[in-house]
Specification:
The structure holds two protein chains of two kinds. By secondary structure, chain A is of the alpha/beta class. Chain A has eleven helices and twelve strands. Chain B has a two-stranded antiparallel ribbon with strand order 1-2. Chain B has one domain: MetI-like fold (Orthogonal Bundle). Classes of the chains: A alpha/beta, B mainly alpha. At the A-B interface, helix 2 of A face helix 9, helix 10 and helix 14 of B.
Chain lengths: 320, 325
């Protein structure tokens, strides 16, 4: 159960001067769900694309290792990466309206995904596609295979996408905010479905999101990203109950809840820095009430039991 | 689907009908064929007899109805010059123009689409910049001038290719075709390349613009994330999405080439419809002009119909709209 499936070590993905991802390390165990949390531009999606080797140019991985299956795949050839993608690792995107090709039928898009990695007949591939659709809860899958994406609702499309991701029972799936574009009720259904499916297949899941509520329901562990770095990570219940990094605390406080009815919503003052001009030292320091001179030095990762954080003045108090 | 096609066909008929009015009136306003057809020293009686035989003494609306009635029976009048039914004269010349147009459009597609894909996939490459710059030249240079340069270079200086006429022909389905013989094919190359140049550049630029638009979309990334080969991502996922504007232009341009290959046919003395129409205008051979215009209109209407049907094959979302109320 606890074998490591994927280990990212000191990953650096830069777009010219912009250090979108700058020294990210984490690992995912088999069957584990990791929540990768952060606001827009924190580098969480770029981290995901780096792992599957699909960073858009001019972005390039300039340093670090991504160890999968015992080897560093940052040095793999294009063809080796292609053979891994979709078979051993899959990715799901944010907007199901945009993920499926609008002019190709669902069966075409699923059969090609099967045949990209296995030498099977069209009929067999089609049967696999139909079973996969049935598995993700799409009614009358045989008929729906003939349909085009625009004939599905958003939630159904995301189910199709999930079915495609699961076709080859990959070792891990990277889900890049797959429920953000959906209605809340559909969101809950998809979350439950996803949770069930990865548990059944013992698939690891990296769930990229800015939604702490989703992470608290779904993830085993959480890693909080800020300006291209992980600032805090640990078991999800610990981190959300007692954040050590002031940014994590700010993020948690920003979530509207029923307990704060009538109060002004809290927010983190200031703006996230541009990854093209990061301050030396802690990137969060300019927005942080606890910051002092020490924060202008480079901040290492401090271990704290099963957790890690990147703050010289971690929050001590117990939060309720 | 069927309803959409029927509706489309009805529209086509209306267009044709409107066109007969325009063509008929336009043709009857210019010049007087009597002056051309009858020798100046014919006497008054002879003159009146010819005018009556051609129906030129009737009021305009009656002439139109007669024309329309005859046209419905496939009779667009008899050429004053060739003394043959005009439609037959046109149809005799049609294969020559058709094979020239088809060759040109095929060259344009074969050259334009791959280069456009390349330039779209590597927008910053040096080769892409070269392609794009050359393509601007391609559709800015006047066709007749490019034709003359081609003749000068390949016909006169190098002597590789013949520069005029249609060469030998061979029969297929009862029609003479040049592309079936080696000599005819050699004669076809220069005019076809000349005609293709503009459209190749147009198709190239459209393809490139389409790729640039589609490439950053999620479904392309997802196709790659599925582990598809790059050839399939480009050949199926990208290509099918950019084909609608390209097919539209191919359809329209094919019609234009057939209709307005006048210049190229004149430069290369290609015995097609374009050359025929120029000759006929010079001698005011009205039935030929009318038949030519009607044939071209019919041609355009058919091409547009085919293009519309192709849309539905390319994009399922179009199909749904066609089925709507």
């Amino acid at each position: 159960m606890n074998a490591t499936v994927l280990e990212v070590r000191d990953l650096r993905t830069h777009f010219g001067q912009a250090k979108a991802v700058d020294g990210v390390s984490f690992s995912v165990a088999r069957g584990e769900v990791l929540g990768l949390v952060g606001e827009s531009g924190s580098g969480k999606s770029v981290t995901g694309f780096s792992i599957i080797g699909l960073v858009d140019p001019p972005g390039t991985i300039v340093g670090g290792q991504i160890v999968f299956d015992g080897r560093d795949i940052t040095s793999s050839s294009r063809e080796e990466m292609r053979a891994l993608r979709g078979r051993r690792m899959a990715m799901i995107f944010q907007d199901p309206m945009m993920t499926l090709n609008p002019v190709l039928r669902i069966d075409t898009q699923m059969i090609e995904a099967v045949q990209a990695h296995e030498n099977v007949s069209r009929a067999d591939a089609r049967a696999r596609a139909r079973d996969a659709l049935g598995m993700v809860g799409i009614p009358s899958p045989d008929e729906r295979l003939q349909a085009y994406p625009h004939q599905f609702s958003g939630g159904m499309r995301q189910r199709v996408v999930i079915a495609i991701a699961l076709l080859h029972r990959p070792d891990f799936i990277i889900a890049d905010e797959p429920t953000t574009a959906l209605d809340v009720t559909i969101q809950a259904q998809i979350l439950a479905e996803m949770q069930k499916l990865v548990a059944q297949n013992n698939t690891s899941l990296i769930w990229i999101t800015h939604d702490l509520a989703v992470v608290s329901r779904l993830a085993d562990r959480i890693a909080v990203m800020y300006a291209g770095r992980i600032v805090e990570s640990g078991p999800v219940s610990d981190v959300l109950a007692r954040p050590l990094h002031p940014y994590t605390a700010g993020l948690i406080d920003s979530v509207p809840s029923r307990n704060q009815r009538g109060e002004r919503l809290r927010q983190i003052p200031g703006m996230a820095p541009s990854v093209a001009r990061l301050p030396t030292g802690c990137a969060f320091a300019p927005r942080c009430a606890r910051a002092d001179a020490m924060c202008t030095q480079a901040v290492p990762l401090f271990p704290a039991g099963p957790r890690e954080h990147r703050c010289v003045h971690p929050l001590p108090e117990l939060r309720v | 689907m069927t309803a959409a096609v029927v509706r489309r066909l009805l529209q086509a008929v209306m267009v044709m009908l409107a066109m007969t009015v325009i063509v008929f009136i336009a043709i009857n306003v210019i010049g007087d064929p009597v002056d051309i057809l009858i020798s100046p020293d014919a006497d008054q009686i002879e003159r009146a007899r010819v005018v009556q035989a051609l129906g030129l003494d009737l009021p305009l609306w009656q002439q139109y109805l007669r024309f329309l009635w005859a046209a419905l029976h496939g009779d667009l009048g008899e050429s004053y010059v060739y003394n043959e039914p005009a439609i037959r004269v046109i149809l005799q010349r049609l294969p020559a123009t058709l094979e020239l147009a088809v060759s040109a459009i095929l060259i344009a597609i074969v050259v334009g689409v791959p280069l456009g894909l390349y330039a779209g996939l590597r927008p910053h490459g040096i080769l892409s910049r070269v392609i794009m710059t050359v393509s601007i030249l391609g559709f800015s240079l006047p066709t007749f001038w490019v034709g003359l340069v081609l003749i000068m270079f390949f016909g006169v200086q190098l002597g590789w290719l013949p520069s005029g006429g249609r060469g030998q022909t061979a029969e297929l389905f009862g029609v003479q075709w040049a592309f079936l013989t080696k000599d005819g094919l050699a004669h076809l190359i220069l005019p076809a390349v000349n005609l293709a140049l503009f459209d190749a550049c147009l198709i190239l630029r459209l393809t490139r613009a389409g790729v640039a638009e589609v490439l950053p979309l999620d479904f392309v990334k997802f196709a790659r994330a599925k582990g598809l080969k790059e050839s399939r991502v480009i050949g199926v996922h990208i290509s099918k999405n950019i084909m609608i504007p390209v097919v539209t232009i191919i359809g329209l341009e094919f019609g234009s080439i057939v209709a307005f290959s006048v210049v190229t046919e004149s430069v290369f003395s290609w015995p097609g419809m374009g050359k025929l129409i120029i000759d006929s205008i010079n001698v005011l051979d009205r039935p030929i002009i009318t038949a030519y215009l009607m044939a071209i209109v019919a041609f355009f209407v058919i091409i547009n119909l085919v293009v519309d049907l192709t849309y539905t094959a390319l994009d399922p979302r179009v199909r749904l709209q066609g089925e709507g109320p």
